[in-house]
Amino acid sequence: MPNAYETGTLMSGAMPAWQRTYYEGVLMDTIRTKSIMVPFCQIKEDFRAKDTGTMVFSEVYDTSPNWNALTENSLWLSGTHLDTRSVSLALEIHGDVLKYSDYTDALNYLNKGDFKGLVNDKIGVNVTETLDILARNAFLAHPSKVFGGGLRANRLAILATDLFLPDIAELARTHLEEAEVPGVAATQDTDLQTIVCVTTPRVIHDIRTAAASNWLSINQYNDATKKFTGEVGSWNGVRFIRTNRLRMLNHGAVTQQTTLSAPTVKGQGAAATVDMVYSPGQNGSVRTVPFTLATGFAVGDTVTIHSVLVGGGATKPPIETDGTQETRRIVAIAGLNISFDKPLLKEHASGDLVTKGIPIHASIFMGGPAVVYGIAERPTPVFPPKMDDLMMVNRIGWRGFFKFQQFRPEWIECHETSGTSN
User: Which of 71, 86, 180, 378 stands 20 to 30 A from 204 (CA)?
Assistant: First the structure.
């Protein structure tokens, strides 16, 4: 196809007319999702691993003391023993790219003409979000997760009423203290060990509004004691940090599911007007997405479009490791054609699943760094030369050779619950 090379580019005349005069809207892009999960990983760099694609992360066990008394004629001691354990990381290549034409209208109308700066900024956000999602997935790969406060056997059995209870935090702290793991907030010997819980804004709300809540806000125990980005308060010695990254919509039990009746392209699916305010998408884009069955879906529902192969087949929810998924809010339904609040930014195949289900909120209690971030090549920007026939298409991207992998599962507890829906 003559335009296959330009897939993903912003071409001349593609931007809606209102964006040409109201470019101040780009200021909304200053609101950023900060990296929350990556700082809780233990980093190991081994640039020689770039040749082998494998990195070994090892640690030495503590010794086991012998407290029996010695006699005065004990001339020789058997000695204590040092031993180790290790994990092998199969490194992965990650990266992405943005493309734009020399003649794109956005050069003149967006970001006050500094479109290259805008693209650079978007690539930076892309790197941050990719790393944080990969770190999150490594934490969620815990071998002994607790579902629905211990009442459910797995994620699919979690009910909408299985909310996070304050007792979960107290019990998790007890378990981690019994495991004698170091507190991640213990930056000096005089610091008290502190258990940190990274969870969702909805879980924080549910804790604060719980009966007889003894929530201690960050303002009550003084900003000087705040150590972490996103920290919002404390509950019985557990410091809470919130990130929406751990809120996984439609990842629980499926309540309604259908499939795409035709493939979609990037930029498709946004309604012409959303909330009587926004005009999302670009001129000439297809404004609907075709479903095989619209029964059971309604305007206002939030659905996830995801891969059949990765998701596991019919009546299976999306999983966090499926990088093809996108979540959108339905704003219009006309027969079997549905429009969303935002355009699809990824391609989806005919037969891909469209799922509505119970949201899952993950809460990770950390006594110490349990995920290793192995780096053979740090994420770095790349600026490939123009290679199209007319030398018009610019590309700005990034790449890295690394892996996030769980190493000390006994140092954390991972709980999955639902959340209130008001």
Answer: 180
